[in-house]
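agent> Task received from the user: take the single chain below, predict its 3D structure, and emit structure tokens. No templates, no multimer pairing.
agent> Plan: (1) validate residues, (2) run structure prediction, (3) serialize to tokens, (4) report one or two observations.
agent> Step 1 OK, no nonstandard residues flagged.
tool_call: predict_structure(input=
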Amino acid sequence: MTSGAQCRQCGSAMTAGFAAISIDGAVTPLLWVAGELTRGFLRGPSVDGRERAAIRALRCTDCGHVAFVVPPPSAEANAEGQT
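)
tool_result: status=success, residues=83
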């Protein structure tokens, strides 16, 4: 499914997708988290109370270039049917 975006490297169409991590067979979408990295419990990243958003990935259908995008909060709310 093309996204309507054009590749910044070669100008071809971009295909929409998402970035994910797989740990022990569980697949989870990657998130953008506001602010600098701080460590919490057991030295893991602390994300409590921070703005978070799913990362969209766009891949060029010709050269394979990948771009990561975090839509603005208003676009995410509209995509989820919220106002």
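agent> Step 4: summary for the user.
The helical segments are 73-79.
agent> Done.
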